Amino acid sequence: MIVVYSGTRNLYKCMLPAIKSLLEHNTPKKIYILIEDDSFPYELPDIVQTINVAPLAEKYFPSTSANIKSQFTYMAMIRICYPEIFANEDKILQLDVDTIVCDDLTPLWDIDLTGKWFAACPEYMGNYNPFQNERYYNIGVCLFNLAQMRKDNTLPYMLRMLNKVKMHCVEQDVFNFFGVPEYVKEIPVRYNESFCCGYTEHPAIVHYAGFPNWWDNPLMYRHWYLDRYR
């Protein structure tokens, strides 16, 4: 299992409980964290490798990019570049920093992705369905088939769209535009229990998507999962 987190400086501290919860329930081969500095201000286990992606972001997302000023920043946009960033990996599990792992993720990692670009949980956002697809997927928890994405040369097409068209959810919209439904595998809700995707009795991953003050909100749904590791 190879896992990646990403975040700007204000999110560095949020990665720590996320990673700690992952390691308590799983034994990944490697954890990558994408940051915007050459060094990380907190002590990390040896299994974790940091990558400064700021130079790559400057290369791919110019100041004229339609989404460069998005609230999600280039740290979200950079996800379309995973096939290049992780050129030696065939598959990678992406987890947002506002996630807490509660169970073994081996069944998720072992999902058959033959011919697919990614596996994710469907998101229900009211009437929000910009591409008229049957499903719209949340990629805050996403298993990427990098080998297939490289084979299908997805980066140039996604990059062009992300830089030319203003998107509400930036890279998530791009993945949904190009990948749904042919290139996506649907995963159970318990791997992305959230306000956006739904709830289960026994979550494998709790995702605080949709809560802007999730880090210190004592009234948030299932805040105790975060409290345990924070």
Q: What's this model, at a glance?
A:
By secondary structure, this protein is of the alpha/beta class. It has helices spanning 12-25, 54-60, 73-77, 82-85, 106-109, 146-151, 154-164, 170-179, 223-229; strands spanning 2-6, 30-35, 48-52, 91-95, 99-101, 118-122, 137-145, 184-186, 205-207. Strands 3-2-1-4-7-6-8 form a seven-stranded mixed beta sheet, sandwiched between helices.
Give the overall form. globular
Number of helices: 9
Poorly predicted residue ranges = none
Largest sheet data: 7 strands, mixed
Strand order of the largest sheet: 3-2-1-4-7-6-8
Average pLDDT figure:
93
Our Rg estimate from Cα atoms comes to 17 Å
Q: Return the string of H and E elements.
A: EHEEHHHEEHEEHHHEEH
Structural class, please?
Answer: alpha/beta
Would you mind describing this structure in some detail?
The protein is of the alpha/beta class. It is globular, with a radius of gyration of 17 Å. The two termini are 24 Å apart. 39% of the residues are buried.
Secondary structure layout:
Elements: E1 2-6, H1 12-25, E2 30-35, E3 48-52, H2 54-60, H3 73-77, H4 82-85, E4 91-95, E5 99-101, H5 106-109, E6 118-122, E7 137-145, H6 146-151, H7 154-164, H8 170-179, E8 184-186, E9 205-207, H9 223-229
Parallel strand pairs: 1-2, 1-4, 2-3, 6-8
Antiparallel strand pairs: 4-7, 5-9, 6-7
